[in-house]
Design brief:
alpha/beta, ATP binding, four-way junction helicase activity, DNA-binding, 3 domains, four-way junction DNA binding, 10 strands, Rossmann fold, 6-stranded parallel β-sheet, globular, DNA repair, Helicase, Ruva Protein, domain 3, two-stranded antiparallel sheet
Length: about 350
Amino acid sequence: MSDVEKTEFHIAGAEPAAKKPAQDPAVNPSAQPGEKDAEKGLRPKSLDEFIGQPKVRSQLDLVLSGARNRGVTPDHVLLSGPPGLGKTTMAMIIAQELGTSLRMTSGPALERAGDLAAMLSNLMEGDVLFIDEIHRIARPAEEMLYMAMEDFRIDVIVGKGPGATSIPLELPPFTLVAATTRSGMLTGPLRDRFGFTAQMEFYDVEDLTKVVTRAARILDVGIDLDAAMEIASRSRGTPRIANRLLRRVRDFAEVHSDGYVDLAAARGALEVFDVDEAGLDRLDRAVLDALIRGHGGGPVGVSTLAIAVGEEPSTVEEVCEPYLVRAGMIARTGRGRIATAAAWEHLGLEPPEGTLGLLKI
């Protein structure tokens, strides 16, 4: 099956979104500058090639197969979940499975209703329109999208004031595929217009090992199964991080040996890049250290933690905390952040009596 035609829409005059403070790039699940080309060759081209997310794949296969059998465009699809789990890849696969073109844009680029109208008017019948980070779409554009999704038409306002007129514009049937990392920020009317909603889950080590092995084969990197499992176990359950770590391990192996990645090379590279056995980086460990050694395990406010590690509160709250909470090392309470027994043990310290998560024998 050949690659689908992809078009990215860039709205003139749209300001780029403000950048978040950066975590260690090796374990930041968001796409990094210049990483698109590296990821492009690693993306699977079909549902059969896609690793992980078995429930989403089976449900989506039913949706697409049913639409093809009836000869209609599939329902609109909403993909939600943390960054790096394959939402954009899944949108490309949907277009590939339907044998149609993929048109790509993002929520922050749609600042005005006219931006969306210009984009919708260029769609052909059966096209797949992909809007990334749709929760950040401007309200006027969102309200125009309601009618486009339901009735495949929009009303274009021409002129201003008393002389303004509304011109109805019919749209060809299309499928909207939207991605969001914050489904709770979507408005009810927008969420309800999607016929199929999929929640992308974090990957387990077994599936991530398959991701690393597949990527190594595509990149022509020789790798041991033990080394692939080591990389997978430190990838925070995220394929994008796994692929990124593989490329850094490949660099290490090429510089320090013959380029073959064995367990020793994988561990050596991950040590150089400050990614420990639990997938924590320097900033993660600094937060735990400030919480435990600096404040006795908490409770501590996020602003105090941010000052202690020299970062912005938003960095600690949006970049570090989600993984530390998921790993069971930090608990968020009304009084502040508390370190669990697992966090004390990760730093090689004995948790005091009464620590959250400490087993009593």
